[in-house]
């Protein structure tokens, strides 16, 4: 998995690409720390258009992001999920946690 985080004012976009699996779990704390460092951020878009696969460990990143968003009134939107990634997130009922566009 590769990721890029871009911040502009009080908004940020997190782009994820490639497979998001157990093997990428050591990267999660770094991503979460970068998100936490933007104290003024109140809107986060997670771009998944280039994400090719996600397993249950990969989905745990979204649970951590959800928990963090609840602590800081952060609106999180998920964009571009398709194919097996969209199916996995739908089966896990993530649409009840985030806005999907």
Automatic annotation (TrEMBL):
* Superkingdom of this protein's organism: Bacteria
What does the record list as coiled-coil region(s)?
A: none
The UniProt record lists the STAS domain at: 1-101
Q: Name one Pfam family in it.
A: STAS
- SUPFAM superfamilies from the entry? SpoIIaa-like (SSF52091)
User: InterPro entries under this entry?
Assistant: STAS_dom, STAS_dom_sf
List the protein's name: STAS domain-containing protein
The opening ranks of the lineage are: Bacteria, Pseudomonadati, Pseudomonadota, Alphaproteobacteria, Rhodospirillales
């Amino acid at each position: 998995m590769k990721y890029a985080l871009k911040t502009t004012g009080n908004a940020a976009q997190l782009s994820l690409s490639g497979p998001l699996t157990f093997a990428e779990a050591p990267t999660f704390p770094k991503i979460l720390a970068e998100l936490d460092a933007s104290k003024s951020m109140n809107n986060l878009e997670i771009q998944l258009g280039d994400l090719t696969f996600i397993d249950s460990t990969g989905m745990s990143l979204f649970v951590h992001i959800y928990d963090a968003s609840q602590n800081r009134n952060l609106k999180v939107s998920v964009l571009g999920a398709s194919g097996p990634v969209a199916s996995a997130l739908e089966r896990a009922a993530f649409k009840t946690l985030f806005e999907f566009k």
